[in-house]
Amino acid sequence: MEEYQDIESGNISPNMNLIIRISDVLNVSTDYLLKGVELDDTTETPYSRMLKSAIKRSGMSLTEIEVALRKLDVKTNRSYLSKLQNGNIEPAGDKINIAISSVLHIDPIEFRTLAYLEKIPTEIIEQIKKS
């Protein structure tokens, strides 16, 4: 409690381990905690929305998901998962998406389809629609 009061009053700065633990509990990125920047809705995609919703429904922290993925022989980290759910990077590949689907109990075909659609160039999607 004393440490929290010291941090709140500005007497000390929290260490990175504490920031990571807080971000896991709140299910937000460390960037959000450190910069105080709200998520820009323009970065969200159907893929990231599905992932974010599944993470929220699961009640798991990003660290817990990371550990579960490692048990499936998929090496990733909290930062990567945070970037995926916030739409800050392109969707993961098949191996990771299949593992995420398993851990979060979401439809792997739907999840992978959203990933593929996001990766396909717009002009190709338009051509497919015309066919």
What does this structure look like?
With 131 residues, the chain is mainly alpha-helical. It has a single domain (2-130), classed as lambda repressor-like DNA-binding domains (434 Repressor (Amino-terminal Domain)). The protein contains nine helices and no strands. The protein has helices spanning 2-9, 16-26, 30-35, 46-58, 62-71, 78-85, 94-104, 108-119, 122-130. The mean pLDDT is 85.
- The sequence of SSEs as H and E is HHHHHHHHH
Number of domains: 1
The named CATH superfamily:
lambda repressor-like DNA-binding domains
What is the number of E strands?
0
Structural class, judged by helices and strands? Answer: mainly alpha
- Globally, the shape reads elongated
Compute the gyration radius: what is it?
A: 17 Å
Count of discrete alpha- or pi-helical segments spanning 4 or more residues: 9
Helical content stands at 55-70%
What's the N-to-C terminus distance?
Answer: 64 Å
Q: What is the CATH architecture assignment?
A: Orthogonal Bundle
Unreliable parts: none
What's the average pLDDT? 85
Largest sheet: none
Proportion of strand residues:
under 5%
Query: CATH top level?
Result: Mainly Alpha
Q: What fold name stands as the CATH topology?
A: 434 Repressor (Amino-terminal Domain)
Keywords:
131 residues; mainly alpha; 434 Repressor (Amino-terminal Domain); 67% helix; 0% strand
Short characterization:
The chain has 131 residues and is mostly helical.
